[in-house]
Amino acid sequence: MKNIIIIGGGIIGLSTAYYLQQEGCKVSVIDKSNISKGASFVNAGYISPSHVIPLAAPGMVGTGLKMMLNTASPFYLKPRFDIDLWRWAWAFKKSATAKHVKKSAPIIKDLTIFSRELYQDMKNSQLFDFHYEQKGMLMCYQTAEFEDKEALIAEVAKAQGLEVKHIGKETLLKMEPELKAKGAFYYLCDAHTTPGDFMQKMHQYLASKGVAFYTNETVLDFNYSGSKIQSVSTSKRNLNFDELVIASGSWSPSLAKKLGIKLLVQAGKGYRINVHRPTGINYPAILAERNTAVSPMAGFTRFGGTMEISGINHNINFKRVKAIADAAKSFYPNITINKDEMRDADCGLRPLSPDGLPFIGRTKKFKNLCFATGHAMMGWSQGPATGKIISEIITDKKPTLKIEGFNPNRKF
Ligand SMILES: Cc1cc2nc3c(=O)[nH]c(=O)nc-3n(C[C@H](O)[C@H](O)[C@H](O)COP(=O)(O)OP(=O)(O)OC[C@H]3O[C@@H](n4cnc5c(N)ncnc54)[C@H](O)[C@@H]3O)c2cc1C
Question: How many domains does the chain have?
């Protein structure tokens, strides 16, 4: 029986544990938290094949530079003297080309569709119950400018075989009476969940199946020689293993550094506000002009957004929280997010790779090390597929999907 250690109990780490446990491996998950917060808890819960365009796309560098000057903008890069940030930014700029988008769109789509199928399988298996609905996502706009922008994006999605309908104001109002928008592109391929609910139930299920959890325990260092890593040292103990998976989200580069590996990942902070009262919102939606996501979750509505590249910190910038509340008001005029709801806002760090594709697979340097990270805005969507692929690699099976695009050894 192979003995596997996974560092990180976010959606990627737990999904990896789920499939490795099913393969009969002995699995342990180490997390420095008690697995109740961070990106995998605050996200919008979308499983979104609609998002086929990687973050590194033409126009993003210009948009980022413009928005850098506005403290309430949905996108922000805090300039700082940090060689890793500038290496990442350079690699991002090089990747932001039309050619890269064309090559990446089918790879991203395949991974996300596969992952949505795996979420459905988990739901059907009834091993643990969780909120999952596939009622699509409305990409809503209020201006002709954004209608045109979104029409181009919808064409890219349609070219990938995804079902997208353009709907006008009247139909939209019937679906979503509270919404003030000119129209929407309706992505029928998307599903949504309630992340905290899923994470808690998955965690409990795995523990009941014998997966060992070392929580509130930080991995500090590794013991390795030649091409094999023998053990990890945590804040409490040393643990040996046959195979190691680094699924540590935005913290993965600092762990990689201890192993002499350069992994280009920056943290992209995002915020969420929960509204625990009836909002009348029926459909998950993205408010295009405001880059804000809206999700009707189990028992509450979540509003989320912003992409703040300002290093590893969980400081809450209230200007950005207020900008999310204002965005909600401008699209749903009857909904006012109050001060208590804003004060309760939380944030999480998306692990951003420079080219918008995750790092999934074995490293060249160590034969018993896999990375599973760098999923950016798509980690919730792509968690189960990533976990499944890592389990296939570790148990020497042919991966269900082609994995070349996710090679963690790729050069930028
Ligand atoms: C506001 C917001 C909205 C989002 N919406 C969506 C969405 O709708 N759909 C979607 O697909 N994605 C979405 N995302 C992105 C998604 O949430 C992330 O990509 C995903 O959660 C990343 O998961 P992860 O497991 O890689 O990282 P994390 O969830 O960050 O987990 C990494 C874990 O590693 C642990 N760790 C780190 N270092 C160590 C160490 N040294 N020792 C022990 N433990 C360690 C951490 O404590 C952490 O628990 C959103 C993100 C945000 C912030």
Answer: 1
pLDDT of residue 55: 84
Write the CATH number for 372.
3.50.50.60
Q: In which residue ranges of the chain is pLDDT below 70? A: 64-71
What tokens were used for 393?
């690699």
On whether residue 412 sits in a domain, the answer given is: no
pLDDT, one tens digit per residue, over 160-208 is 999 999 999 999 999 999 999 999 999 999 999 999 999 999 999 999 9
Contacts by 163-170 with C-beta closer than 8 Å and gap 24+? 163/187, 163/188, 163/189, 164/50, 164/188, 164/189, 167/138
- Stated length of the chain: 412
* CB distance 7 to ligand 1 below 6 Å: yes
Atom in ligand 1 nearest the alpha carbon of residue 250: 30
Instruction: Evaluate whether residue 377 is within a structural domain.
Output: yes
Which of 321, 380, 381, 406 to mutate for ligand 1's pocket (most ligand atoms within 8 Å of CB)? 380
Which atom of ligand 1 is nearest to 295's Cα?
Answer: 8
Angle between the 195-208 and 11-22 helix axes, to the nearest 10 degrees? 30
Question: Do the domain assignments include residue 250?
Answer: yes
Could you tell me if residue 411 is inside a domain? no
Strand partners for 26: 3
